[in-house]
Amino acid sequence: MSASIEQRLTDLEVRLTFLDGTVQSLDATMAEQDRLLLDLRRELVRLRETLSGMQTAGQDARDEPPPPHY
Q1: Residue 58, pLDDT above cutoff 80
Q2: Which residues have CB under 8 Å from 60's CB, separation 6+?
């Protein structure tokens, strides 16, 4: 094999190694983002249920008197 072909092969291997590391890093980031999004969705559902429960119990924030400093 000529030196030129060996150098090109080495360069491709280096690039492939770099790209493989990048893909693994992006995969880990996507997995973390997916977990975070799932947690946020669960929290949103919980907050909606809490708010819905407050409204059905007649505890609308507009019905509350203003704080004493007004």
Answers
A1: no
A2: 54
